[in-house]
Specification:
The complex is a heterodimer of chains A (about 150) and B (about 400). By secondary structure, chain A is an alpha+beta fold. Chain A contains five helices and three strands. In chain A, helix 1 crosses helix 2. Chain A is globular, with a radius of gyration of 14 Å. Chain B has two domains: about 240 residues, Aspartate Aminotransferase, domain 2, CATH 3.40.640; about 130 residues, Aspartate Aminotransferase, domain 1. Chain B is built from 14 helices and twelve strands. Chain B has a seven-stranded mixed β-sheet with strand order 2-8-7-6-5-3-4, with helices on both faces. Chain B has a three-stranded antiparallel β-sheet with strand order 9-10-12. Chain B has a two-stranded parallel ribbon with strand order 1-11. The N terminus of chain B is likely disordered. The chains are: A alpha+beta (about 150), B alpha/beta (about 400). The interface between A and B is medium-sized, with 31 and 26 residues. Chain B: One of its GO terms (cellular component) is L-cysteine desulfurase complex.
């Protein structure tokens, strides 16, 4: 059901762990829905110089977490904010339809981290937009992946 | 890391089983020379007809019924659909209420939900923390409108064996018919439809080393059941369609083999299963066994591992050649984890982190050793990735 690339990324995930001196931390998901991602960022001059993650979830969630942290390394915060879950899915060579919503988790966690960074510096958090159900009020059934 | 095992270690026998060589051998002539239609009148078709009738006798003997009470179907799902819809439609004038349990297979649950949309009412009985239906609850749920009680003999996910004989007695005391889905129980739980007060029983060939696409429904003599599949006059006019002769012959041989020595089989399988359970619970912290400690199928082990998700466990095990199953939502593409695990009171997180290993006749002690070696590694690896894992449970990576 998964592509070789997803299995590879899931089996050997990159950037796993915490950053004790992170400049920003973001979290998305809930244990009820079955996935949670926590992301830690180091930021220098508005650019992401290090990224680590911890994820509770299925293979798609873990693979997208790993891929997303790899993709945002070296990006400016604005670029990372604009990283879409479609970008992550493409980089993974696709995800099965019922699993596409799992990739929203990484985007949401990244945006939460960027807002954490902004808040720490006294800036207004950005409007996060419609995220994964797991981070919102609607619960699992509101998830676009669960239509 | 050389974790690519060459061999496939199959421990998902509740999903399906391999076909035993004896079963394949019994079927072979019916796939080639004995191809006649059992309904045809010429002598050439006699072999096919005899094959079907011999199998009917084998199924009847296995559950303590007479041959005339056995009807072949396309599998367990059809048998469940037929039993429940057939009783409901044939007894509309007597009542419109059905009692079942919250942990039934979807073949029963979705059939009941469909009947609700047709105007029937259904009570879904809760279960205790071990997945058992209390017979007294069945009695309390029965009303003057109740026409059927349907409770499975043993659960497919957690393996809990139900007090079927007591439930049958409660139903009969109130004059209500009793159906049981015995799909997972054949070959593990000795069945006697008389002693257990069973009026209808569903079974499926591929769960006990028989062919897929075969099943049967036992209908007690004299029970009014509406026909579901209309057409020709096969199965004494109650289930139309040319018989799956090779499949039926295989089903008959398989059930004969599966019920020849249930006690000996259970002893052997349960010994391996118990070692597996002790080994896993002993080596993986924050793990639990789901289901009943003793009243369970001898081949079933169902665990929950906290802080991680079941599909991930499954795929890492698959990478090591081990076939298992999970009640996590993520494996099924649905938004909810297993209704069975939730009904026993597990939290969503615990249900998401479930793993089912079901042993079979080809498994050996070495297979158990191998799983006991691989599984704790896999759990540890996923827990190192999870943000939920407390520091005390986080096992450092072995070099």
């Amino acid at each position: 059901m998964y592509t070789e690339k997803v299995i590879e990324e899931f089996t050997n995930p990159q950037n796993v762990g915490e950053l004790a001196d992170a400049d920003a931390v973001g979290e998305a998901g809930s244990p009820t829905c079955g996935d949670i991602m926590k992301i830690y960022l180091k930021v220098e001059c508005d650019r992401i110089t290090d990224a680590r993650f911890q994820t509770f979830g299925c293979a798609a969630a873990i693979a997208s977490s790993s891929m997303a942290t790899r993709m945002i390394l070296g990006m400016t915060l604005a670029e990372a904010w604009d990283l879409s879950n479609a970008d992550v899915v493409d980089a993974l060579g696709g995800l099965p339809e019922p699993k596409v919503h799992c990739s929203l988790l990484a985007r949401d966690a990244i945006r939460a981290a960027i807002n954490d960074f902004r808040t720490r510096r006294g800036l207004e958090p950005l409007e996060r937009g419609s995220g994964c159900c797991c981070s919102g009020e609607g619960g699992c059934d509101s998830c676009p992946g669960n239509d | 890391m050389s974790d690519q095992d060459q061999r496939t270690l199959y421990m998902d026998h509740a999903a399906t089983t391999f076909m035993k060589p004896e079963v394949v051998a019994a079927m072979a002539p019916y796939l080639s020379e004995h191809f006649g239609n059992p309904s045809s009148l010429y002598r050439f078709s006699r072999e096919s007809k005899n094959g079907v009738e011999e199998a009917r006798g084998q199924v009847a003997a296995a559950v303590g019924a007479s041959a005339g009470e056995i009807f072949f179907t396309s599998g367990g799902t059809e048998a469940d659909n037929w039993a429940i819809k057939g009783i409901a439609l044939a007894n509309r004038n007597r009542g419109n209420h059905i009692v079942t349990s919250a942990i039934e297979h979807h073949a029963v649950l979705h059939t009941c939900e469909w009947l609700e949309r047709q105007g029937f009412s259904v009570t879904y009985l809760p279960v205790d923390g071990f997945g058992r239906v209390e017979p007294e609850r069945v009695g309390e749920a029965i009303t003057d409108e109740t026409i059927l009680v349907s409770v499975m003999t043993a659960n497919n996910e957690i393996g809990t064996v139900q007090p079927v004989a007591e439930i049958g007695r409660v139903a009969h005391d109130r004059g209500v018919l009793f159906h049981t889905d015995a799909v997972q129980a054949i070959g593990a739980v000795p069945i006697d439809v008389e002693r257990m007060g069973i009026d209808l029983l569903s079974l499926s060939g591929h769960k006990f080393y028989g062919p897929k696409g075969t099943g049967a429904l036992y209908i007690r003599q004299g029970t009014r059941v509406e026909t579901l599949i209309h057409g020709g006059g096969q199965e004494r006019g109650r289930r139309a369609g040319t018989e799956n002769v090779p499949g039926i012959v295989g089903l008959g041989r398989a059930i004969e083999l599966a019920t020849a020595d249930i006690e000996g089989h259970n002893r052997r399988i349960a010994a391996m299963r118990d070692r597996l359970v002790r080994g896993v619970l002993g080596s993986v912290p924050d793990s639990r066994l789901n289901g009943h400690p003793t009243e369970r199928l001898p081949n079933n082990a169902n665990f929950s591992f906290r802080y991680i998700e079941g599909e991930s466990i499954l795929l890492l095990l698959d990478g090591r050649g081990i076939c298992a199953s999970t009640g996590s939502a993520c494996s099924s593409g649905s938004s909810e984890p297993s209704h069975v695990l939730l009904a026993t009171g597990l939290s969503h997180e615990e249900a998401h982190g479930s793993l089912r290993l079901t042993l079979g006749d080809a498994n050996t002690g070495e297979d158990v050793d191998h799983v006991l070696e691989v599984l704790p590694e896999v759990i540890g690896r996923l827990r190192r990735i999870s943000p939920l894992t407390p520091a005390r449970t986080r096992v450092p990576e072995a070099e």
